[in-house]
Each structure stands twice: as C-alpha cells, then as structure tokens.
Please model this.
Amino acid sequence: MSLATREDDPLGEGAALVATLCYMCSSECGLLVSEKAGKVRIKGNPAHPVNRGKICPKIKSALSLLYSPSRILSPKKRVGARGEGKFIDISWQQAFRDIATKLEAVREQYCSEALTMLFGEKPDHDVAYWFAFLYGTPNILDHNSLCDTSKRLAYKSVFGEGQERPLPDLQRPAWTNLGYREKHDCRLLILVGENPAEAIRYFWFWQGICEAKRQGMTLVVVDPYQTKTAKLADLWLPIRPGTDVCLLLYLLKNVVDSGAYDREFVDVHVSDFTNMQHELSVPVLDAGLTRYSLEWVAHMTGLEQQYLQRLSALVCTENPLLISVGKNGVAHQYSGFCTTRLAAIITALSGSLDVPGGLLLRDPPRYKSLSNSSDLLRAGQADKHKDYSGRFPLASHGVVSTIPSEILDGVTIMEGPCKGHQYQTKALIVTHGNPLLTAPDSAQWRKAMTARSGDGYQLSLLVVNDSVLHDTALYADYLLPMRHFLERQGVTEQESAIPLTGLRQMAVTPPATTRSPLEIYQGLAQAFDSSDGFAPLLALTGDDDWCDRTLGKAGETAELRMQGGVQARPIRYRKFTTQGFATPTTKVELYPHGAKTLAEQAYYRNEASCYAQASSKARFRLITGRVLGHVHSLTPLLDGASASPYVWLNNVDAQAKGIKTGDLVKLDVEGKASLIARAKVSLVLRQGVVRALYGWGSALSSTPHNYNINELIDSRHLHPISGNAVFGAVWVTINKLI
Ligand code: SF4
Model:
C-alpha cells in the first residue's frame, strides 16, 4: 500500500467511496474514504452535519498512522527488560494462550479484580467490557479522569443523570421541534478556558461561533493566554488560572441581586433557590474583602474592575446566553467542578436552558453501550471497583492516575459490603492508550511497570493492544496489533447538538495479521482452559451483531449503513417540561450531593493564598494546552509535522529573568522533577504564568527539547470527589540555562 497523492487520486479512477467517521479526536467528523490498488484517499463528507465536508490537518496523520513504520503488524512477545522495546513476533494462537494462562494464574493466585483494563480511546472496543465483566473484574476504565470528569460530574449534579455533556445550541442549519432554523439565536457566549479555534474539537462549534458572531452574538473569552479564539473575542479577560470560580460566583450574585433571572423557570424547575439567595446575601469576609463583591472578585482573579462590570452587565442583559467551560483549561483545576456547576446554574437561571441558542440538554441515548453491562459481573464483584468503592465514589469511568500506586501499594475498598477488602493490581491491559505520556507523573508509571518482585515484576502481566508502537508499549509483555480506526467497525452516539447516531464503517482493507476488537476478545476468551464463563461474548456472531445489540435491534446496523452511516434527529427544545430533571428533586439542583455552599470547601481551593505564597517564592503557575497534532498515543508520529515545542512566559517576567525567545530554560517543581525546553517570550500571556504544551515528550521522538510536561505533574493532585487529574495546579520555577 502507498499513500495516495492528488496526482494519482484514486477517486478519479472510479474507486468506491465509503462513508465513515474520523476518530483522530472525539468530534468524529464524517469522512468519505476510497481505496483502490492499495491507495487510500480521505476527504470530508459534505453531507455530515458535524463537519459539512471540512476536515482538519490532524486527519493527515490518520494516513501516516496507517502506513507508519511503527505500525504493529503481528502479535509480539517481550524478550528484553521492560522498557527496552525488544520483542519477537509470535502467532495469535500463542499470544492468546500465553495471556489467557497468565490471566488465569492472576485470578487463582490473587483475585479477578487484580486485573485492570484501561482505554485511551474507547470507540469500537465496547466488547472489552464484556470480556472484563465475564472474567470477573469491575476495574475497566477509560481516559475520562485525565480529561473532563470534573466537568461532566458537575453538569450531572445540576441537571441529573444523562446530562454529563449538555451542548451549546450553535449548530446551524438544523431541524428542530420548532421547525427548520438557519439563523443563530445565542446572544452572548462566554468561553472560560476554552479555545475551539485551535484545540479543534467540534467543527460545528467553531463554525457556529463565527456565524453567530457575524449575526450579532457577543463573544467573551476568559483565558490567561490570548489564544486564537481570544483574538476574535469582543472581550478577552486574562484571568489568574484557577480563579474562574470566583468570577462565576460574582456573576451569579449579580444575576440574582438584579433579578435578571427567569422567575417562571426558577419557580417551577429550580430547587433551593431561596437558600441560594440567602447564601449570596450574607456578607462574609474573605482576604479582608466582602465575598462576591467587585473588589473581592478583582482581587481574586487579577482582572480590572471595569471589565468585570462590563461582563456582569452583559450577563444580566443578553439572552439567551451560554457559558462554556474548557475541558482541560478549567476541569483540570481544583475548582473545575465548582466552576462548571456555577456555569450550569447561571445558564439555567437566565432562562437559557434547552431553548434556541442556549444550552441543550441531551436527548436520552438511542442505544445501550455494551459498557453498561455490569450485570454480567458475578454478584458482589461490582463492590470491589478500585474507585467507585475506593477513594472516589463519584468518579466517572474510573481513575487512571492511581493505577501506579495500585500496582505498587494496592487498593483498599473503603465503602460498601466489601469495606476493608485489599488487593493489588497484578495485570494491566491497555487498549489504544499511552498513560506513560498522557497521565500525570510519568516517572511513577515507569516505576510501577518495572518494580521487581522476586524473579519477576510486581505487575505480573502488561498487555498493550494498539496499532502503533509508543512509550507504554515499550514496557509491554505482549503487544497485540489492533486495527486502525479506518479498518474497523463501530457505532456511536456523536457529540453533536443535532442528535446523531453514526456508523464507523470498515473503509480500508486491514492487514491480514491484525484483528478486530471482537476477534481479539473472543480469541482470548477461547484460549482459557474453560471458556464457559465467556459464553455471552462467544455467542456474538460478528461486528454487525454487536453493533445491533448496541443499537437495540437486529438489522439496525445494516439500516444505518443504507442511510449513509448517519441518522440525524431533530433538536428538541424544552425537554424538561415533559421529562423533568433526573435529579433527586426532579429539578435543577443548586446544592447537590449534600453541599452546604455554592463553592463547597471540599471541592474548592482558595487560590489567593496560593498566589501570595507563590509570589514570595518566585514561582509561576504552569498551564498546559493541547497541540493540534496531539491525540493520545499517536503524538510521536506527528513530530515531523510540528516544530519543537516551546514554553511561553510573559515579556515582563522574561526580562526580569534575562530570558529571550529561543533560550534554553529549566523548569523545576520543588522536590519533584525538572525539564529543559526552549523559551518563547509572549506579549499576550498573563504575568506570573508559564504556558507549556501537553502530549509531547515521547522517548521515541527525535524532536530536540521535546519535553513531556507530565514529568512535572504530581499524581497525588487529584480532584477529591471526581479523581480528575488536576494538571492545572502546578507551580514551577523557571530559569535560563547557563
Ligand atoms: S476535527 Fe477531529 S474528527 Fe474532525 S477531521 Fe479533525 S481529527 Fe478528525
């Protein structure tokens, strides 16, 4: 196979086009893919509502991954020490037999919950949940706790079950229950730590923002760095990182005090409103200032009073409004949960919930993901989940950052009928994930993977299931060649304001030596001495069968294929009038989980004292952001397309430290770690902040000064209830390398 160019475009040679979905990020854009004589060409699908024919530069790396020299094309077994990356090719039969034998030994010698399965990317792999549950472990988790668990949990706590990701109504044109809508309705959009112009996530979101702005919407960006999105904003507020929660408390107080809320909505659909009014009206001193006052918020956020007043006036007059908080910018702060909660509350009180141009509640999902099959677990096993009954009972989809400590020190169950039960993680299966690079504290991961126990390793089995070699894969005992996303099938409920069910079709012929997720888990199940326990998994007859089960009806997958791989449904507004909210009170919850205050102490960090302490020790707040090319474990392969990453610092700070653009600088976290990178002096970054990029630093990379920022992140910095990694609470010193 070779990479097609425009000159030998197979589309011009009558090659069939297959409509499928991208999975280089979770936008899942519609693609049209052709393959002829071993040549593959990809273009955007103009009929797909998510991207309407557009694709981003990242998709180019989908082809480079397909043809990568690092592509894993046969099962491999480690022959050197972990981390050396020395492997020999083995047959599938041997790989399945070896792994099954070791998993049986783990279950016999320890317990079935000693197996943890981790996904970096989950789509199309849901059958792995059946394997895990039928083996007997509840410990199967995805990457959410490295991403936006705090944000999702916050929305769920305010709007109820099924509302982890309400979406902005900025997708046009769209069919709705109020008819066909072409024009945008949103009047004010506040992006808090979100940068959709660069950190491409939803094409429709950024396109919608640009169109709505042309139609009169005001755009406000709250971010310590003037991102590309902030450059287009009507108002840019370079806030102190981590203090967004104070800004939103101030705005909420003004909305309530000025009566700029929807009284009818509040009377019928909001619980505890009078308690909240009372809380906001009681004067409390904080840092010597009255909490929620203009002086207080200016002191906490470092923003000028005139701009705060301007923003407050906008929030109290413009409607519908949207406050969208960044998955990484905000959810990665200690106060990310509270910040999102407040954004949800202000949106709801202003009457902007589930209305045209407001925040859309999600429709009930069309299908049941196989991951919701924990009833397949033996009775009592669910209570041994390392997180849900462990340290993070409200964690969503499990906590990744604690895996190294669970390998080294073990798990203690802290709640439920198994309280006091202890075990150690002895086997780990990683599917399309690279935690060594993407999780906090890379050194701790290396330590956990290489810690010795007698003649062997403390973690007795590490399997990596992926399409390319990466840092974590270098430590694997067995590598299983997974199919590239263009070579496999799956169904998905897309992250789109227009409700969409999509089909990822097999668009490219897979190498014969690779296997689909279903084939891998069925092959593994069959290799157990007794495979009876895996009967439901082994009964699946093929990819269409498990997709049909997900969609809930035999023949649905074929039907979806006939419809071009995407089914769109109209947007339905004001769903809460008929279905209410799936919260304990059936209303919008202002004080969920027994919270006594809007910014509950347990979930909220008063950053003012941190900033005061940092300034006395000449420390900088470290912020990180995504790079265009980053997509979990695939990053190393994108190196060639990107320049060496920098760390940014403000020009005044740089001058004080004698640092110029291009200088080598050393970043230190006291008593933890350090790294070296090239500096870039910035006029548009807040003083006292260092900005770095996330997702670089592979040991396989040849890019110079290609730092891995996660070497500096402490894995103990986790949100106390969600277990979300708090990547944003790091203080560093920065000095020129002499
Ligand atoms: S935005 Fe994401 S899903 Fe869309 S083409 Fe780019 S990488 Fe693929």
About this structure: Residues 21 and 30 are 5 Å apart (CA to CA).
